[in-house]
Amino acid sequence: MCIQGDSLYETETVMKLCRRKKWKYIFTHKAARQKLLDESYEWICQGNGSVEVAG
Fold it and tell me: How many domains does the chain have?
């Protein structure tokens, strides 16, 4: 299953549920609303780091 939503669904609770159920997720956001998230994504895409999900 894949969940798609906007930034209203970018919450820890929803993401934990998706991980627990092994669902994929796609959340869209406006850079101005989630500045830290946008900066982190750009940093990772440039090969400067990785994200580990504790589960």
Answer: 1
